[in-house]
Amino acid sequence: QPQVLRTGGHNVLPLDEVVEAIEAGKPLPDRTVAITMDDAYRSIYTEAWPRLKAMGFPFTIFVATDPVDHGYPDYMTWDQIKELAAAGVTIGGHTASHLNMTDASPDRMAEELARSNAAFATHLGKVPDLFAYPYDAVSPAAEAQVTASGYRSAFGQQSGELYPGGNPYDLPRLA
User: Fold this and answer.
1) Model confidence over 109-132: pLDDT tens digits?
2) 106-124 helix and 140-148 helix, angle to the nearest 10 degrees
3) Could you give the CA distance from residue 32 to residue 5 in angstroms, rounded to a whole number?
4) DSSP-assigned beta bridge partners for residue 11
5) In contact, 166 and 22? CB cutoff 8 Å
6) pTM check: above 0.85
7) Is the pLDDT of residue 164 over 90?
8) DSSP string, the chain
């Protein structure tokens, strides 16, 4: 609930700033959080963004690109994602098809990441540097593919705190 973040003494920062601080070993204020959402559902644009914007809260969307490319009705369009990015919303990668990476071969993972990155480059003019594993499907092979694809950090969906020295390709997020 965004209202809890406002009244609970939390410090809401963009995820990329949190990652930069962790990478640099800089302390963050107590109760610092970053808000993330997965997949690029249209409700992020129509429901979440207006509410978070009204509260002044930054957030990150990890976009699975195929549903956007194919114009699925429950997903945002590239124009909407561009609008969010222009407004300061951080955009991250989430594969092309929302691939369960632990069930995929290295070649399939590489193809998915390349296709997703090409879509970002075409539609946003740049490739994100933050990534979230669909289904929290993290494995050493998935980490290797994400690293090779140029991402600087990647997130699972396991409980935990971010801290300097943690694995930058298996950072925790709370569901």
Assistant:
1) 999 999 999 999 999 999 999 999
2) 40
3) 10
4) 32
5) yes
6) yes
7) no
8) -HHHHHHTT-EE--HHHHHHHHHHT----TTEE-EEEETTBHHIIIIIHHHHHHHT--EEEEE-HHHHHTT-TTB--HHHHHHHHHTT-EEEE--SS---GGGS-HHHHHHHHHHHHHHHHHHHSS--SEEE-GGG---HHHHHHHHHTT-SEEE--------TTS-TTSB----
